[in-house]
Write a structure and sequence with these properties.
alpha/beta; seven-stranded parallel β-sheet; six-stranded parallel β-sheet; 21 strands
Length: 686
């Protein structure tokens, strides 16, 4: 089958289902194969109803005790069925599923399994699944995939379509040279795709992750090696004369630069005045003061009559940079315009911004991905700054840099404190400056790890902070409730918290599936303290500066990597008030407790990243993509560090081999690389 064919060619996917699945970003058979599970569950063994003493996921071998009943409420149809196994009975409830009644009436004894909750001093099973005993015993022997879903599609349905896609793909999908597979003991790609979706056991799942993580790293690093070769040692096309202007601005700052900031600024200036175009990574912990260094570097260009641009990953952050830079320009008496360009601006606003960018030499330009659109033309772009580089691919950086008449200087900023050894691999085309000191005025964040018995105590603590006119973030791992994962989700959590605190406190939510306008509206409301508590997914990991926020509460904290938890914690502690991070652990795992305790002992992101690397082994495949770094679909630079190192060596060897002669180019890999180039980013495209 043609992997680029639309998913509608797969058996069972009609026009209506195809439209629903497309909401997940799945349009082709290839997309379906690469829609990896977000987690896996091991189904429970069958137990007796009279042994039920706690909520959770359970399975019972039952039959209907009475005919199912269909009730119509104002909001939905509800199907109720009393089920018994001889030892006791339990009420099963299905919402908006009237067809369940006819299915149950034709069945005898069956295994019913699902989430059991306590209600009115008894237990009910909501939205359970059911199947014959022999089928269930087979399911118990392997891990079951759980997918990111959209309304109208269950994880079971999506898995069925994935299986059809896998059966249709054939075996001729391998795109890495056989020698690379043998040297690194990697399973064939077809086998890896089967095992990542429907693993035989944990060992095979580990092998599949190893193969697919290697592919993501290898593809990215081959691109990076070629990009490095094309940009290496380009002459500096923007001559500057030594000036004391920046030193005078630094004297006017309301705070002294730290030693690390001064060192990094000296390294940037040495590049700018040097014979070659700068290619530098500015790596610094959250709150270490990278933005002021970017501003000073951009002002350096403005003073010489050159343009500079900074690209942020979100519109909210871009607008905040624009407002901050505009304020600093006025405060320090700098004669340079600040221009904003984002995707949500009106057509008229964009035309005005385009015109100013073509006319105003010395402008400080701030924006999002809109800065690299075809319509955008710069007058004399000399410096490009990308904020939070792991949100941008190498190709996007190349496109941005190509907007200048000459190769502009490139400054990449990242708040992800990965160990230097990994940074050298991931950013091999860049020189590295590290800002490893926090400003002295910052109060250390107070941290604690609690279990779910302390949830209401934590809510009460947050309420007291709100009474002091402060604000809080609460992070949940899911957008919507998922019956297969016992995790908190932002939508139902917001409702519960609002009910608990009452109308005096405004609670709202934010997640990545919301459109840009709605995200901006919510974040602006939070910035202006119209929203006191923001319940969010990790979309706020790369967020804005809200000095008034003093509490970060993270639900199911054991699900996240330490580096990502540290990034989330960095959203608070940005003002003068004491700030707090509450990590709520919902497991009794001693290993999870030890990991989280590292965060309570240190606020140093580089130390935490190093400990994360030590503690998370290559078999840590649950909670896929915990770090978020580089926007890989599945690979994680911490738990897959061994694959990153191996892929780095293989990528260098492959590029060198290609340079020596065309016979060394491997056609399937080159076709895959061409698809990557068309995609315009570093997400893996099979």
């Amino acid at each position: 089958m043609n992997l680029d064919a639309p998913i509608g060619v797969l058996h069972g996917i009609g026009p209506k289902t195809e439209t629903m699945i497309q909401k997940l970003g799945v349009y082709t058979v290839r997309d379906m194969l690469l829609a990896f599970p977000r987690d896996y569950v091991q189904l429970p063994r069958v137990s007796r109803i009279n042994e039920l003493h706690a909520e959770g996921t359970h399975a019972f071998y039952v039959s209907p005790a009475a005919a199912p009943v269909l009730k119509n409420t104002r909001r939905m149809q509800v199907t109720l069925a009393k089920m018994t196994d001889g030892s006791g009975s339990i009420q099963a409830v299905w919402y908006r599923a009237p067809y369940i009644r006819s299915q149950l009436s034709g069945m005898g004894r069956m295994v019913m399994y699902g989430r059991v909750t306590a209600k009115n001093q008894s237990y009910i099973m909501e939205q359970p699944s059911f199947c014959p005993l022999e089928d269930y015993e087979r399911l118990c022997d392997c891990l079951q995939p759980v997918y990111s879903l959209t309304k109208g599609i269950s994880s079971k349905q999506f898995g069925k379509f994935v299986r059809i896609a896998l059966e249709s793909m054939g075996t001729k999908v391998e795109e890495l040279p056989e020698a690379v597979l043998e040297r690194n003991h990697l399973m064939p790609l077809a086998d890896a795709l089967w095992q990542i979706h429907f693993p035989t056991d944990q060992a095979e799942l580990s092998r599949a992750r190893k193969r697919l993580a290697f592919d993501e790293f290898f593809l990215f690093l081959v691109q990076m090696q070629r990009f490095k070769e094309s940009t290496e040692r380009i002459p500096n096309g923007f001559p500057l004369e030594q000036s004391s202007d920046i030193a005078k601005i630094i004297e006017k700052l309301p705070f002294p630069l730290t030693g690390a900031q001064q060192r990094a600024l000296s390294e940037i200036e040495a590049d700018i005045y040097g014979p070659y175009a700068m290619q530098r990574l500015l790596q610094g912990d959250v709150g270490s003061g990278k933005t002021i260094l970017a501003f000073l570097s951009m002002v350096r260009m403005a003073k010489a009559g050159y343009q500079s641009a900074i690209m942020a990953p979100t519109e909210v952050l871009a607008r905040q940079h624009y407002e901050t830079f505009s304020e600093w320009v006025r405060e320090f008496g700098i004669d340079a315009p600040v221009i904003l360009l984002t995707g949500s601006m009106t057509a008229k606003q964009k035309r005005e911004a385009y015109a100013r960018m073509e006319e105003d030499s010395g402008a400080l330009i701030v924006g999002t991905h809109a800065l690299i659109q075809e319509k955008v033309n710069y007058r004399n772009l000399a410096l490009v700054v990308t904020d939070e580089q792991h949100r941008f691919g190498v190709r996007q950086r190349e496109t941005f840099a190509a907007k200048g008449m000459h190769q502009p200087h490139v400054l990449v900023m990242s708040a992800t404190p990965i160990p230097r050894t990994l940074a050298i691999i991931l950013y091999g085309d860049l020189d590295i400056s590290v800002v490893d000191e926090l400003p002295a005025r910052r109060l250390p964040i107070k941290n604690c790890v609690v279990d779910d018995r302390k949830r209401e105590t934590s809510w009460n603590f947050i309420a007291k902070e709100v009474e002091k006119h402060h604000q809080a973030y609460i992070i949940c791992p899911l957008v919507e409730e998922n019956e297969e994962l016992e995790l908190e989700d932002v939508i139902s959590y917001t409702r519960k918290l609002q009910d608990y605190l009452g109308e005096a406190v405004c609670v709202d939510y934010l997640h990545g599936k919301m459109n840009a306008a709605k995200k901006n509206e919510v974040m602006e409301g939070f910035l202006q303290n119209k929203i006191q508590i923001l319940v969010s997914t990790t979309v706020v990991e790369v967020g804005v500066n809200v000095p008034n926020a003093t509490v970060m509460m993270i639900e199911n904290a054991q699900r996240f990597g330490l580096a990502q938890l540290h990034q989330l914690r960095g959203r608070v502690g940005r003002g003068d008030a004491q700030s707090y991070c509450i990590m709520l652990q919902t497991t009794d795992s001693r290993q999870a407790k030890e990991r989280l305790d590292i965060l309570t002992k240190s606020n140093d992101g580089f130390f935490i990243a190093g400990e994360d690397l030590k503690m998370r082994g290559p078999g840590d495949f649950f909670g896929i993509r915990q770090s978020g770094l580089m926007e890989f679909k599945l690979a994680d630079v911490f738990s897959d560090a061994d694959m990153l190192s191996a892929a780095s060596g293989e990528a260098k060897a492959y590029v060198q081999s290609c340079r020596s002669g065309s016979e060394n180019i491997y056609p399937p890999l080159e076709e895959r690389l061409r698809r990557e180039y068309r995609a315009g980013d570093n997400n893996w495209n099979l």
